[in-house]
Amino acid sequence: MATNGNMDVIEGIVEAANDRGIKVGGEWRNASKFHPIDLPDRGARVRLELDNKGFIRTLQVLDAAPAASSSDRGREIRRMACLKAAATFAAGKCLGGDANTIKTADVLKVAEAFEKWVLEGGERSA
């Protein structure tokens, strides 16, 4: 962190964002309600000037966040759905008395099998 007059200057990658601020360098930096700014997406490289209370006074986007392709997003959604289904399946096994035999690795194997089934168009395996 550098100082510019009586303002702190921070440069870094936006690690997370919400409607109130962004996380840069492991710390949340909030926008001031008195100086509203447009907050960038996660992954953008930014330079922030913070006022003496630590609120973002100015924000400069140095590099925009890399755009995720719709196919990447679709793959991520599919994989999360398969993982959720596998976890639900394993939970049912645990309730049936197999709690000691179900491991995390087993859930991941089931999720992979579910994803493979989805990718193959739902064809039944022999």
Strand count, sense and barrel status of the largest sheet are: 6 strands, antiparallel
How much helical structure, as a percent, in the residues? Answer: 25-40%
Order of helices and strands: EEEEEEHH
pLDDT averaged over residues: 84
What is the number of independent domains?
A: 2
Tell me the Rg in angstroms: 22 Å
Distance between the termini: 61 Å
Q: How many β-strands, per DSSP?
A: 6
Strand pairing plus helix content: what structural class? alpha+beta
Note the overall shape.
elongated
Uncertain spans: none
Beta-strand percentage range: 25-35%
Oligomer: single chain
In DSSP terms (H or I, runs of 4 or more residues), the helix count works out at 2
Explain what you see.
- This protein has 126 residues and is an alpha+beta fold.
- The chain has two domains: 2-63; 70-119.
- Helices cover 36% and strands 29% of the residues.
- The chain contains two helices and six strands; from the N terminus they run E-E-E-E-E-E-H-H.
- It has helices at residues 70-98, 104-119, and strands at 2-4, 7-17, 21-24, 27-30, 45-50, 56-63.
- Helix 1 (70-98) packs across helix 2 (104-119).
